[in-house]
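Quick question: what would this complex look like in 3D?
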Amino acid sequence: MREVTIAIDAMGGDHGPHVTVKAALDFLQQHHDVNIVLVGLREVIEAELKSLKAESGSRLRIHPASEVVTMDDPLTTALRGKKDSSMRVTAELIKRGEADAGVSAGNTGALMAVSRFVLKTLPGIERPAIATTLPNRNGGWTYVLDLGANVDCSAEHLSQFGVMGAALVTAVEHKERPTVGLLNIGEEDIKGNEVVKQAAELLKVSGVNFYGNVEGDDIYKGTVDVVVCDGFVGNVALKTSEGLAKMIAEELKREFMRGPLSKLAGLIATPVIKRFKKRMDPRRYNGASLLGLRGIMIKSHGSADAYAFRKAIERAAEEVRGGLLRRIGDQVGALTRQEEQVPEEQVPEEQGERA
Amino acid sequence: MREVTIAIDAMGGDHGPHVTVKAALDFLQQHHDVNIVLVGLREVIEAELKSLKAESGSRLRIHPASEVVTMDDPLTTALRGKKDSSMRVTAELIKRGEADAGVSAGNTGALMAVSRFVLKTLPGIERPAIATTLPNRNGGWTYVLDLGANVDCSAEHLSQFGVMGAALVTAVEHKERPTVGLLNIGEEDIKGNEVVKQAAELLKVSGVNFYGNVEGDDIYKGTVDVVVCDGFVGNVALKTSEGLAKMIAEELKREFMRGPLSKLAGLIATPVIKRFKKRMDPRRYNGASLLGLRGIMIKSHGSADAYAFRKAIERAAEEVRGGLLRRIGDQVGALTRQEEQVPEEQVPEEQGERA
């Protein structure tokens, strides 16, 4: 296996180097064929390494960056004001080929804007998207995109998301023909708004293994490998899920704390509850993919701890090894060639339906 | 208290009279000031009453309807083909003033179309919406609308949903100034798509107690009393929640069944789990309100059992008693008067922002 180098925005996230440096060290211990570049304020990173009784070396380099994009910085500051930010330098290392992928727990909007500005989009991709994995009832993962990068999507955008999502699943899960579903409010073709209806037509001829419409509950049923939606809908679905999961966990805890007998039952059930919590632990699938760029960039949750951030680094490494960029390129290439061939066939069909 | 009469589409839902008749009898036993009209095939309803050792009387009438709208019937069949369907006759009883409200577990799309056709919308309401309640972490309820009646909403529609949702909470929960939040993908004013941004401006001057933007997790946090969104987004949020809740319940069960020790722990924890399940039981809040019509119509879940369907009947009775229609009328009236006053002020502001 060839060596992989991952650049880490060491300053990003709620906890900065305190989390990112520890996660990098843990990762390196488990993966011997990956190098890491920690990007950020040298003294701060070195102090963190020292406190962990570690030091930089051939597999763990520090690359200096003098500025930090905060959660409150407006996009213009991230893009134009702080040209030597750890976030931006991370993206530049990818662009210059000094890293194969990047990971940042910084502000999502800023990370997308900076990554897009520095790396540019892949040919044939109009808009990058954010994809994440959610656990499903099959014991596997459902990939959902977009999650908020694009709030006003055209049918073409949605179709491209499907192509990119399929490439992601092939790269990371090694499934050759992953199924792609279009998030809608009913399974029938006639349902949904105009954009979604048109997107379904485009996905049918996109070359991906298009399943058809799916509904919100299909995300957790695991009906398809990839669920495509616009960023507004995807963001609401994700946040709603987070809110519900928290409420359920709280209610369960409350019931087990209600009185001495319940507490005793809770004590006895502790190992079961622990296993359950582990299975549901969102840290396990931390790391959203910024898809459609000429480089691999992973966005970690801002509040990630070292365990969660390590998962995001693992995801970056998997995408590199799975040849994600080449796969997206191939699929989009096939799509573009197909689009050049189909217009004459499609126009009369659509007119026929309207008549 | 004045007597309330509720018409029930006895034939609707997955189980038809087997559930609706039982629910009606249970409801009548608990509420002595409400009359019920069971609408549908007389022989079938009478057979069901007989099997439950009950009969019709002054408080429980049967109103015949010779046809049934099935789940697969296209809208045109429900609207024009089956003019004597139990669903349509239920709506007509409301229109003629023979019932104060209706309840049906039939096809949502058909029920909305038939109700709108028969009852018409209230003055000032362009589109009716579907509202439901979801439990929140405050131990209360969050009202969410729209849930699928409208997939392409204008800012005006969203603003009207806010007004109707507030009126619903006042009528049913007796809160005088319920808070209204606009579902978005960030709390800041600049977030979201154009329609949502405009809707926020309209809600600010609508007379409702507008909180501002909320996110998906706020539904379950209970940040506001009413969450407003377009039907596509609302439907996805609801279905996603259903899917996640099912997965969590399944995982919890699986962990408790994993081995003899876990099973024993589960046995000991049974009363706790039961209380938890009861609190999370979606049957408790069965019954979505079709808002914006000149009549009160409640849509029950199609798979509702007698307990769940009774909850839907209770909701109908509460809306009648709370004076829902008058409250919506008052709020919309205030909104319309306000709109007539504000345009001169608003136009220059909007132009200023664009320049």
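Answer marked as accepted. The longest helix of chain B spans residues 231-256.
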